[in-house]
Design brief:
- There is one protein chain.
- The termini are far apart.
- Strand 4 and strand 5 form a beta hairpin.
- The longest helix is centred in the first third of the chain and has 68 residues, at about 185-250.
- This protein is of the alpha/beta class and about 775 residues long.
- The protein binds adenosine-5'-triphosphate.
- Adenosine-5'-triphosphate binds near residues 317, 505 and 546.
Length: about 775
């Protein structure tokens, strides 16, 4: 039986870290082995007699580890044993003064009473305590573990009970023990106030910290939002600027025609309606840039001073009288008609005769811009006319691109520029459309005022453009296109002309390019002559020659830079030292001065003129004819025509008819790898066969050219200038040629005419009479 006044003996449970207060209940795990035995014994008593004193060890007194002098008298409500572990449910009843002998199982407990204190003091202290408690709970409102501290006053009988309940929540065991030991309620409350005020300051500090952290986070977020907004605004204003810039550009583009301006403004309107992210924007902007970059109304003033233009042309090239004259005619017409209509010329000639460079010189002479398009290999109509803008990656056609002002800030050519259509004969047509058809429109003065490029969409006026096309072969240009151009033939140069070009243009140009003085680099005339004859005799133009001189200059420069030389005047015997063995060493054209069944013909090729040997032999057979030498159909027919013409004239030439029955004839054209065709070898074949059958030798320095009919007529041939130049270059002294070519004599350089004995023949009999004078007596 529990008596709150009497001193009694009770079993004692020793706890390591738990302090129990009166009016509180809780579970306690017994770790002290003797204590669990005590619990076992007490548990055997009836519930109303199960009293124990709970006392804690004073850990701060490390040496002795004695018990605190004050403990709590408890009722043992329940005990649970699992293996060696023991748990008890205790209900605190009263503070007691504990007296016990060390290690004893029982102790004497003297009940302790709370001091009488002034109620106002108690109330005042309690109010302070409650304030702190409220602040504490407010600060920890998120933490549910503190809810147990909330005071529902009606649950409690008095303030002491409340104080015990709050004290139970303190973790610090020493503070708890201090409260338990204190007899004054006010003192106990003061301990709690102290604890709570400390906790409140911590809470407040934590709150300030989190407020600051939150504030910082908020500031950071606001800063992020602000920056993002700024960026968006900047981007939008950039886009606006872009539109604004473009609008300004269009307004300032005074060179635009009305139609072009309207188109540009319409596109700008479209641009404004598009959402910022639309992929169409860049397409429209590039279209507008392109539209503005075209010359439209911009026209460069033409240099109409005939003398000055003539000077520029003469200074740039030698031997271009025909071209110069044509350009002066063009200027003269412009002066008179006050028109700015362009022209369409086509320079036809072998490579390296200056077609491209003379076009540039024309632009300079006329004070026009020069721009060019390489047409070689172009097989798509869209390359000329552009792609429609609906295609991904659509681009304008090459014609308009060539007229476009290049990159930003660069010069925009005038709409009357010289536009070079290089290698128009090498255009190809494939399944993607025929570029010729598009070019027909470009070059037709009737249509080109409204040239339609698919990309540009609106018509563009090409009338003022000075078109210059270049081609190696006239007949490779389709006839309709050829008809739209004025063809100017630039044929190959004679040796003398080449020497002149080299001396007046090529060498000075190269020396200027490499910053060489005459003391440092020069070529003697004989070296130049040998360079031509032994290294580049077969070329019609001077590109190869220029490359050789260039190579010589580079090699001399290397020596100059290495300090091996101070200057070099290259003579003929030094050529092989610099350029290696000549490709065409000097030699006699033929081993024998005259031969039977061998004749020299003259051929025209893409790269100029050349000589061509015709050989015939008789072999035992049955009157058959064999042809070898990679011949084309026309050439084969020429052999047949010549042979039959000869058979027709058997009696005239006193030939043995048996020959044509008992012998086979083999006609051969050496250099098998080179294809040969054309009718101009006809006369040569006839004379070769006659020489073979009549056994009359032909001088190796005589050449012949002319088409033959079955009746022996000699017809006109083409490429006479190239052929005669080749004849001179190959040391031929006499050329038999058609009477009908006499009209071309004006084109033949004087130097060539002087070096050759030209024999004009109307009929093959005349050629025979000249070549085999015996027959002339017939
Ligand atoms: N009559 C000339 N006077 C001065 N230089 C010339 C003459 N002919 C050609 N040249 C020079 O020869 C070089 C080759 O000429 P260009 O490139 O104009 O030849 P091209 O006929 O256009 O050849 P291709 O058909 O291969 O394009 C250039 O350096 C050019 O200046």
């Amino acid at each position: 039986m529990f008596d709150s006044e009497s001193v009694k003996e009770y079993p004692i449970i020793i706890s390591e870290d738990v302090v129990f207060f009166p009016f509180t209940a809780g579970v306690l795990a017994i770790k002290h082995a003797p204590s669990s035995e005590i619990v076992q014994n007490v548990s055997k008593q009836p519930v109303e007699d199960r009293y124990v004193v709970l006392c804690s060890k004073n850990k701060s007194d490390k040496k002795t580890s004695k018990l605190f002098p004050v403990g709590t008298l408890c009722r043992l409500r329940q005990s649970i044993f699992v293996h060696n572990d023991c748990q008890v449910v205790l209900e605190g009843l009263q503070r007691v003064q504990v007296n016990c002998v060390e290690d004893s199982e029982r102790c004497t407990a003297v009940p302790l009473h709370t001091l009488e204190e002034a109620p106002a003091k108690i109330e005042a202290t309690f109010r302070v305590l409650r304030d702190y408690l409220e602040q504490y709970l407010k600060l920890n409102s998120q933490d549910t573990t503190h809810r147990a501290l909330a005071i529902e006053e009606k649950e409690f009988v008095n303030i002491e009970q409340i104080v015990y309940k709050i004290s139970g929540n303190i973790h610090d065991i020493e503070k708890k023990q201090k409260i338990l030991q204190s007899d004054s309620l006010v003192a106990r409350m003061k301990i709690l106030i102290q604890w709570l005020s400390f906790e409140v300051s911590i809470g407040k500090f934590k709150e300030t910290l989190s407020i600051k952290a939150a504030q910082k986070m908020r500031n950071d977020y606001q800063e992020y939002v602000r920056k993002t907004k700024e960026e968006i605004i900047k981007r939008e204003s950039e886009d606006q600027n872009l539109y604004y810039d473009m609008e300004k550009k269009i307004q300032n583009a005074k060179h635009l025609t009305q139609e072009a301006k309207k188109q540009a403004e319409n596109e700008l309107k479209k641009l404004r309606l598009l959402p910022q992210s639309s992929p169409e924007i860049s397409g429209i902007l590039s279209y507008l840039e392109f539209l503005i970059s075209l010359p439209w109304k911009k026209v460069n003033p033409l240099n109409k001073d005939l003398n000055q233009a003539n000077k520029v042309l003469e200074k740039s090239h030698s031997g271009m009288e025909k071209v110069n004259e044509r350009i002066l005619e063009f200027l003269a017409v412009h002066r008179r008609r006050k028109t700015d209509q362009g022209a369409v010329l086509c320079f036809v000639g072998p490579p390296g005769v200056g077609k491209t460079s003379v076009a540039k010189a024309i632009a300079k002479a006329l004070n026009l811009d020069f721009t060019s398009i390489a047409l070689g290999g172009c097989g798509d109509e869209a390359e000329i006319r552009g792609h429609r803008r609906t295609y991904i990656g659509a681009t304008p056609g090459r014609i308009l691109k060539a007229l476009q002002g290049r990159e930003k800030g660069r010069h925009r050519p005038g709409s009357n520029a010289v536009l070079l259509l290089d290698e128009i004969d090498k255009l190809g047509a494939d399944r993607r459309g025929d570029p010729y058809a598009a070019l027909l429109e470009v070059l037709d003065p009737e249509q080109n005022s409204e040239f339609r490029d698919h990309y540009l969409e609106i018509p563009y006026d090409l009338r003022k453009i000075f078109f210059i096309a270049t081609a190696n072969k006239k007949y490779d240009i389709p006839a309709p296109l050829r008809d739209r151009m004025e063809l100017i033939h630039l044929s190959g140069y004679t040796t003398q002309e080449k020497i002149q070009i080299a001396q007046h243009h090529l060498i000075p140009k190269i020396m200027k390019e490499y910053c060489l003085t005459e003391e440092q680099f020069s070529l003697t005339s004989s070296a130049l002559y040998d360079l031509l004859i032994q290294y580049t005799p077969k070329e019609a133009g001077v590109r190869g020659l220029k490359e050789r001189i260039d190579a010589l200059a580079r090699k001399v420069i290397l020596k100059l830079e290495r300090g091996i030389l101070e200057g070099e005047i290259i003579d003929r015997d030094q050529l092989s030292e610099y350029l290696g063995t000549p490709l065409y060493p000097p030699k006699n054209l033929y081993n024998q001065p005259e031969e039977i069944g061998v004749m020299t013909g003259l051929a025209w090729t893409e790269v100029g003129g050349d000589i061509m040997k015709i050989e015939a032999v008789q072999v035992i057979g049955k009157g058959k004819t064999f042809l070898t030498g990679k011949l084309g159909d026309i050439m084969k027919e020429s052999v047949q025509v010549a042979l039959n013409c000869l058979k027709e004239n058997i009696e005239y030439y006193h030939l043995d008819p048996q020959f044509f029955i008992e012998k086979d004839i083999h006609v051969h054209f050496p250099e098998n790898a080179i294809p040969k065709d054309g009718p101009s070898a006809g006369a040569g074949i006839f004379l070769t066969l006659l020489s073979l059958i009549s056994k009359k030798p032909v001088p190796s320095t005589t050449a012949v050219t002319g088409e033959i009919t079955t009746k022996g007529e000699i017809l006109r041939i083409g490429g006479l200038k190239e052929k005669l130049i080749a004849a001179v270059n190959h040391e031929i002294d006499t050329v038999l040629l058609p009477e009908r070519n006499r009209q071309d004599l004006d084109d033949i350089p004087e130097e060539v005419k002087q070096k050759l004995n030209l024999v004009f023949v109307r009929h093959i009999h005349q050629a025979v009479s000249h070549l085999f004078p015996d027959y002339g007596k017939l």
